C-alpha cells in the first residue's frame, strides 16, 4: 500500500500589526461617524461619542469636577473629549492587534462599546427611544467595517502559489523550495486592502461631515438669527460714567457676550429653535400653563443689569460677569399659574436634562426681580448662554438660579424633588457671599517702582458694596476709591494708588457690604455653597 508524502502545512492567516491597528482605528471612526450622522436626525446628544461624554460628566465625582473646572476652566469639556478620544483610539488599536488572526476579539470590543453607548443614550432624559437608532447605527457600521477590512487584509492571494499571504513575515513560513524567486510582484490583495481602508476613511468623513451639516441646518443658530431686535418696554438705566476702572485694569462694567463666563454640564450646546421651544409651568399650581417663544416675546419685556456668579468661583476666581438681561418677570408667570401654599422650590429643567432648585420665596419676591430672560446685552441670548430662554435670579449662585435652555418649571417641595447639584452634596439655598478680587497687578508681576495702581472688583448681590480695603503685608488697612454704583445686584470696582519702593510686596483685599458685614479671612473652598477668604497676591517693583 502506497503512502503519500505529507503536504507542507498551510500558513495561518493573520494581519500585520500595523494593518491590524489600522483596521481597529478605521472601524472606530466608521462607527462614530455613522452614529453622529443618525444623531443629527434624532438628537445630536445621541451621538455615541457625545452621549458617553455626557454620562461621564454626570458620573464624575464632585471633587473631580471641581478640579477640572479650576484647572482647565472653560476648556474642561474639551479636555474631556480629547481624553476620551485618546482612550478610544488606544482601545481600537489594542482590539485590532488582538484580532490579527481572527476578527472575533475586535467584534466583541465593538459590541461592548456599542452597548455602553446605547446605555448612555437610553439614560439621557432629553432623548426619546428613537435616539437609540444612533448607537445601533454606530454598532452596525463598526462591526461591518471591522470584519470587511479584516477579510480584505487576510485574503491577499499570491497567484503563483495559491496560498493566502497574510503578514509581513508569512513568506518565512513557506518551505524554502516553494519561496518566490527574485523580486516579488505587487500583491493585488494588498492594493485591495488599502483601497478598502481608504474607502472606509472617506465614507466615515462624508458621514461625519453630513451629520454636522444636517445638525447645522436644523440648528438654533439660524432660528436665533431670525429673531431680530428685542425691544424692552422698560430698558435698564444707562451705565453711568465712572462705573468701572477698566483703564486701570478692572473689567469693563458690562461683560461682552463672548467673554461672559460659562460653567455648565452641557458637553455640546443644546440646539433648540425658538419655534420649537416651549415652557411648561406645573406642579403645586392652580392651573398648568404653557408658553411658546412668541408668547414670551409678545409680553412686556424688561431689561435689568445683573451680575452673575458661579459657586465654583474660588477666591480671586474668574467666574463672575455682568450683563443687561432682557425678558419677563418670573414672578408674573408664577402668579398667573397660582402658586399653592406649601410650595418650597421652583424645580427647573433644561432641554438637556439638567435640573436646578430655586427657593420659591425668592422667585416670588417682587424686590428680587427674578427673570425668564430671552435677551442679553441687546441681542437674543447666545446659544451657549441659554437660547431660547434661561432663568436669571439675582443674588443666588448660578447652580440654583440660572438654568439655561429652560423648558420646564415645576412648583414643588424640597423633599419631592432633588436637583442635579443637590444630589451631589451642594447647598440648598446658595446666597452669593460678599467677596472681592484683585485684578491688577497680576500675581508675581514685576512693575516699575513708584506709582502703582491696585484695582479690582467687589460684589454682594442684592445688598451692595459700601467699602473695599487693601492691606500691604501686615500693615494697616487702607480704604479704596469705589466706582459709581449702578445697582445692588451688580459688582462694584475699586482702586488704590500707591507709591511703592523697589522690593517684593504682598497685598490683600476685603469688602464690606451695605449691611455692615465685612468678608471673613477664613479660607474655605467652593463646596458646598461658595468660597470665602481674602484674595491675596504677591508682586515685585524694581
TrEMBL record:
<dbReference type="InterPro" id="IPR036374">
    <property type="entry name" value="OxRdtase_Mopterin-bd_sf"/>
</dbReference>
<dbReference type="InterPro" id="IPR000572">
    <property type="entry name" value="OxRdtase_Mopterin-bd_dom"/>
</dbReference>
<keyword id="KW-0472">Membrane</keyword>
<dbReference type="GO" id="GO:0020037">
    <property type="term" value="F:heme binding"/>
</dbReference>
<feature type="transmembrane region" description="Helical">
    <location>
        <begin position="20"/>
        <end position="44"/>
    </location>
</feature>
<feature type="transmembrane region" description="Helical">
    <location>
        <begin position="193"/>
        <end position="215"/>
    </location>
</feature>
<feature type="transmembrane region" description="Helical">
    <location>
        <begin position="104"/>
        <end position="123"/>
    </location>
</feature>
<feature type="compositionally biased region" description="Basic and acidic residues">
    <location>
        <begin position="175"/>
        <end position="184"/>
    </location>
</feature>
<dbReference type="InterPro" id="IPR014756">
    <property type="entry name" value="Ig_E-set"/>
</dbReference>
<dbReference type="GO" id="GO:0008482">
    <property type="term" value="F:sulfite oxidase activity"/>
</dbReference>
<feature type="region of interest" description="Disordered">
    <location>
        <begin position="161"/>
        <end position="188"/>
    </location>
</feature>
<dbReference type="Pfam" id="PF00174">
    <property type="entry name" value="Oxidored_molyb"/>
</dbReference>
<dbReference type="GO" id="GO:0043546">
    <property type="term" value="F:molybdopterin cofactor binding"/>
</dbReference>
<dbReference type="GO" id="GO:0006790">
    <property type="term" value="P:sulfur compound metabolic process"/>
</dbReference>
<feature type="transmembrane region" description="Helical">
    <location>
        <begin position="78"/>
        <end position="97"/>
    </location>
</feature>
<protein>
    <submittedName>
        <fullName>DMSO/TMAO reductase YedYZ, molybdopterin-dependent catalytic subunit</fullName>
    </submittedName>
</protein>
<feature type="transmembrane region" description="Helical">
    <location>
        <begin position="129"/>
        <end position="149"/>
    </location>
</feature>
<keyword id="KW-0812">Transmembrane</keyword>
<feature type="domain" description="Oxidoreductase molybdopterin-binding">
    <location>
        <begin position="268"/>
        <end position="421"/>
    </location>
</feature>
<keyword id="KW-1133">Transmembrane helix</keyword>
